[in-house]
Specification:
Strand content of chain B: 35-45%
Number of strands of chain B: 23
Strand content of chain C: 25-35%
Largest sheet of chain C: 12 strands, mixed
Radius of gyration of chain B: 22 Å
Helix content of chain C: 25-40%
Largest sheet of chain B: 11 strands, mixed
Chains: A mainly beta, B alpha/beta, C alpha/beta
Largest interface: B-C, 39 and 35 residues
Oligomer: heterotrimer
Number of helices of chain C: 12
Number of strands of chain C: 24
Radius of gyration of chain C: 21 Å
Mean pLDDT of chain C: 85
Chain lengths: 113, 455, 483
């Protein structure tokens, strides 16, 4: 039984939250009754996506230079970023939110720094 | 006990009084404390001088201030030299011991606790302490940078060095800063060299292998007319120490400054060796060597301000990187309108040894005066296949050849450093890094072979 | 590099040079047209409602309105940049964000209101078109493009050259596919502002294999006091195509400041080449804060030629993202700053693929209390092996009071990159002047000759009439003719 990383009831719609999951920084986004997780590091300048980031549809926009990453495939919809960011599986169990950072579900490489 | 974000007037007053500091120093600490109240911690998105290190991600200021308790520091590398040196040791936020050979004391050289010196040598300390951090930092945001103001307010262990006019020292003054306790360490150094004095100051930074600490350090040095000063700063931290350092020298007329930094340890090191050339004919030579390995982040920001005519500056930083490491060279040369006849050069060279490393170079020039000679350059490369080929074809084993090439790359930075023990100590550090590296992963650039072939 | 050929009898060319020079000399006296009687203005200041109103006025699809509103949010949230030039005197609440000078676009110059036509005649634009110096022309006045024309044979080959509003209406699919993919709405504060209130600019599509032999030209004119001009340009060069786009910019001198904040996105597909030339001569009360970025795909070439002569403050760093193997990027720029001017200009080259090449040549001249800054980025991404980049920044200071800065950024992730960076700072020396004066050349002419020689490597890359204009503009600035 994994330990919960967040409480669903504490997540606000469209308000990204930064978590540390087993040493991996994760940006958690609630969209309706769903929760999505993406590595919290922009592939352009390594900025935190949760820090000032804005959710648009199924993407999170980095507050530093505006690339928006799809929360499923991790790909940026525009420059200046060019590389995808890893996305993670999220399991909801009641109010428990569990993020699996052992593997990127979109296969994107983890950032180096 | 308090954290850097929760300093109080009471705690600062109490600590200042307990240390027996004179009232002017206590007042100055409180004034700095008041400045911190209007300051936010650096925002790497907004602050140009913090763009190269993401403050929020890499620097944790929610740490307890460490104010003593540690006992010992490892022996200084100068212990092996057959010279008599003055030594001051700061261990875990307290000055634990100061040794001054009588031969130096007889010459009037002072190496002492800064709190005590503030009373006993107020004529020297009062005008100099904080003179390089709280004003006259055009463009560097010193007044605005809370990491520096916090040290102004709350430094816990300070060393004062004074070398009287016309006294020339042949042996170094060694200041050790050692951290074993987790938390925030705020060391402070002030040195004053009288006119025509000569001295070298070694700063050795070390920690326990597992010590998880933030060291937020300020070193100020005033070099009066025609003084000759060497500052050598070794960063040999363990893997869990973050180090913020401002080491700033004010160079008066015809003074000659050399400032060598050797950075091999630490998790994040943001190192600001600065010189204000305030007197005509002053000269500064900021030198840096660094070797970054997996997980390390070095942000090196030499800054030279030419504020007076006919001064000279020559910046050279050389670094090697391996693993997932990141280095930033953010050099800045500012030439004031009055600084006619300035001669300045600024260079950064890095060697990327393995995949995954990143080296940034930003050699800046800001020039208000046209009558000058200015140059700057930067080069990033990897081990040259041709060089490797020549060495191996002479029967030198590949691994040994690689080691020779990397060591040779650094030697340029030591060409003018004749200080006892320094080059050996630095190259020993670098050799240790190479010895621990997997040489088979070193990338070799075959471009030179191709170019050679094309010709 | 080959120069664009202009087939024109020599005598005509010379006459044109003289006419351009004379018009520009006249312009220096700061004429402007009346600024009442506009067809529509959004009033001063900006709100979300104002942004929606611009979109509605233009009859745009919902997605564009939503994108504008999203960008407006970003614009409001973002702080002002605290690096580069001093922007503290921009009064955003005083600015007119959207002003239509006329209800409809003209098909011939004669259809324009007479005073506006007179403006363009003084600038020599209709003349250039009549003389077929350009293959197409767009003339933007305040927020909208009032005149637009493209040569008939190019239209037949499928070249699209429209104002950007018309581009959105007529080619919505291709527009939507590319718009804001090079520069996102929240790239920076001024790109966000542009995305919120953009109007006009050029929308260009060059079909595969089509090479447009002479330049397409756009002319941007701010006339109204406190005007904000936010044109948006999108150029798509299909594989193997070529186009040279040239823009010129002017405004009259007022006592209070105007804002020009354009966004230019260019997509250069495989083997295509785009050259984009700007000769910016905004009056010295215009803040010129522009985001220009191109993507160069496999073996594509993008060239920015950038002349910054006017404006109070310019912050502009034309960029090329080299995303395809063998792509090439080039920026050639000239900046001139006199009293009260700060030209903070440069270039960005991002090497994201193997065997990519970039070249930056920056020449800046500063005089009086003027300040020029070169600010440039060369980035070599992991995997972009065998990348090469050369950067050369030359600064010329004409006296002891001006200032010049060099801010090169190099971010290297690849071990085998070849990067060269070189900077020089020089002054017009007493020796040079003495030598020339001793040969009967007076000091002003001698200085002008030195400056011409200094910028020659860039001037020679321009079509002849622009090269003349560039030299003439700098000569005028140096005479101090400007008030």
């Amino acid at each position: 039984m994994s330990e919960a990383h967040a409480r669903f009831s504490s997540l606000e719609e469209g308000q990204p939250v930064r978590l540390d999951v087993d040493g991996v920084p994760v940006c958690l986004v609630r969209i309706g009754q769903d929760v999505k997780a993406i590595h919290d590091t922009c592939s352009h300048q390594q900025w935190s996506l949760a820090d000032g980031g804005t959710v648009w549809g199924n993407g999170v926009e980095c507050s530093l230079h505006g690339s928006t990453f799809d929360l499923d495939d991790g790909r940026p919809s525009s420059l200046p970023a060019m590389r995808p960011v890893p996305t993670f599986d999220v399991h909801l169990d009641g109010d428990d939110v569990v993020v699996d950072t052992s593997v990127a579900r979109n296969g994107a490489p983890f950032p180096a720094h | 006990m308090t954290t850097l974000t929760a300093l109080t007037e009471e705690a600062l007053t109490g600590a200042s009084d307990a240390a027996g500091e004179p009232s002017w120093l206590r007042d100055r600490r409180l004034a700095a404390y008041k400045r911190t109240l209007d300051q936010a911690w650096p925002d790497s998105r907004a602050d140009e001088f913090w763009r190269s290190t993401p403050f929020a991600q890499r620097i944790d200021v929610e740490r307890e201030l460490v104010t003593g308790g540690g006992l010992d520091a490892p022996a200084s590398f100068t212990a092996d030299l057959e010279v008599e040196v003055a030594v001051a040791r700061i261990v875990d936020g307290a000055l634990v011991d100061v040794t001054v050979p009588s031969s130096l004391a007889e010459l009037g050289v002072v190496v002492a606790d800064l709190s005590t010196a503030a009373a006993e040598h107020a004529d020297l300390v009062e005008p100099a302490l904080g003179s390089l951090t709280s004003s006259n930092r055009e463009g560097t945001g010193g007044d605005a940078d809370r990491t520096i103001t916090v040290n102004d307010a709350a430094w816990t262990a300070g060393v004062f060095v004074s070398v009287p006019a016309e006294v020339e020292l042949d042996t170094p003054v060694v200041i050790q800063v050692h951290a074993t306790a987790g938390g925030a360490h705020l060391p402070r150094v002030l040195a004053v060299l009288g006119h025509h004095a000569r001295a070298s100051i070694y700063l050795e930074h070390t920690s326990g292998a597992d010590t998880d600490a933030l060291v937020d350090e300020v070193v100020e040095v005033v070099a009066h007319d025609a003084a000759q000063l060497d500052v050598v700063s070794f960063q040999r931290w363990g893997d869990h120490v973050d180090h913020l350092a401002l080491q700033k020298v004010q160079a008066h007329r015809d003074s000659r400054i050399r400032h060598l930094s050797v950075t091999v340890g630490g998790r994040t090191v943001r190192f600001l060796p600065e010189t204000d050339l305030v007197g005509p004919g002053a000269e500064t030579r900021p030198l840096g060597v660094y070797f970054a390995d997996e997980g390390q982040w070095f942000d090196l920001q030499p800054y030279v301000r030419h504020l007076s005519p006919h001064a000279t500056s020559d910046v050279l930083f050389k670094g090697a990187l391996q693993g997932h490491s990141r280095t930033v060279f953010r050099g800045n040369i500012f030439v004031h309108k009055d600084a006619v006849g300035t001669d300045t050069d600024e260079n950064n060279k890095s060697l990327i040894l393995t995949e995954g490393a990143r080296a940034d170079a930003t050699p800046f020039l800001e020039i208000e005066c046209a009558d000058i000679v200015a140059g700057h350059g930067s080069a990033t490369g990897q081990i040259d296949a041709l060089q490797l080929y020549y060495l191996t074809s002479r029967g030198i084993p590949r691994e040994e050849a690689l080691r020779l090439i990397v060591t040779g790359f650094f030697r340029e930075a030591f060409a003018e450093v004749t200080l006892p023990g320094v080059e050996e100590a630095a190259l020993t550090e670098i050799d240790e890094r190479i010895a621990a590296a997997d040489l088979s992963r070193f990338q070799v650039n075959d471009a030179s072979l191709k170019d050679h072939h094309d010709e | 590099m080959s120069q664009t050929e202009i087939e024109l009898p020599v005598s005509d060319a010379r006459r044109n040079q003289q006419a351009v020079a004379q018009d520009l000399a006249d312009y220096k006296f700061g004429w402007s047209d009346r600024d009442d009687g506009y067809a529509f203005t959004s009033g001063r200041g900006l709100t979300a409602e104002g942004v929606a109103a611009i979109s509605e006025r233009k009859g745009e699809p919902t997605w564009m309105r939503d994108l504008r509103l999203r960008a407006f949010q970003a614009y409001e949230r973002r702080p002002m940049p605290n690096w580069g030039a001093d922007l503290s005197d921009i009064h955003f609440d005083d600015i007119f964000y959207y002003v239509e000078a006329s209800e409809k676009q003209a098909n011939s110059w004669e259809e324009l209101p007479p005073e506006i036509l007179e403006t363009y005649e003084k600038l020599g634009i209709p003349q250039a078109e009549r003389e077929r110096l350009i293959a197409g022309v767009a003339a933007q006045y305040e927020s909208t493009v009032l005149y637009h024309k493209v040569r008939e044979d190019l239209e037949e080959q499928g070249v699209i050259f429209l104002d950007t509003d018309a581009g959105l209406q007529e080619y919505e699919d291709v527009f939507r596919e590319h718009f804001a993919t090079v520069i996102p709405p929240n790239d920076n504060k001024f790109a966000a502002l542009n995305t919120a209130v953009w109007s006009g600019g050029s929308f260009i599509v060059i079909p595969e294999g089509v090479k447009v032999d002479i330049p397409l030209q756009a002319y941007f004119r701010i006339n109204k006091q406190n005007m904000g001009q936010f044109e948006r340009t999108l150029i798509i060069a299909e594989p193997g195509s070529y186009v040279h786009y040239v823009e010129g910019c002017t405004a009259p001198i007022y006592s209070s400041d105007s804002l020009h904040s354009a966004v230019v996105e260019i997509i250069v597909k495989e083997g295509a080449r785009v050259r984009y030339t700007t000769i910016q001569n905004w009056s010295n009360n215009v803040y010129n804060l522009v985001t220009k970025r191109a993507v160069a795909e496999k073996n594509a070439t993008m060239e920015w030629i950038d002349g910054n002569i006017g404006s109070k403050v310019t912050m502009k760093y034309p960029a090329v993202w080299l995303t395809g193997e063998g792509a090439k990027g080039e920026v050639l720029s000239v900046a001139y700053a006199n009293d009260g001017q700060h030209q903070d200009a440069g270039a960005k080259m991002v090497h994201a693929a193997p065997y990519t090449t970039s070249n930056i040549l920056s020449k800046s001249i500063s005089k009086g209390l003027g300040r020029t800054s070169y600010r440039g980025l060369v980035q070599i991404n992991d995997g972009a092996h065998h990348a090469r980049s050369a950067v050369k920044c030359d600064a010329l200071m004409l006296d002891d009071t001006s200032r010049t800065d060099t801010y090169p950024y190099m971010e290297i992730e690849q071990e085998d990159a070849t990067i060269e960076h070189e900077a020089t700072v020089s002054k017009v020396s007493e020796d040079q002047l003495f030598y020339m004066q001793s040969r009967g050349i007076d000091e002003d002419e001698a200085t002008a000759m030195i400056v011409r020689g200094f910028i020659e490597p860039i001037a020679r890359e321009l079509p002849m009439e622009y090269s003349v204009e560039l030299n003439r503009l700098i000569a005028l600035e140096m005479e101090g003719a400007i008030g």
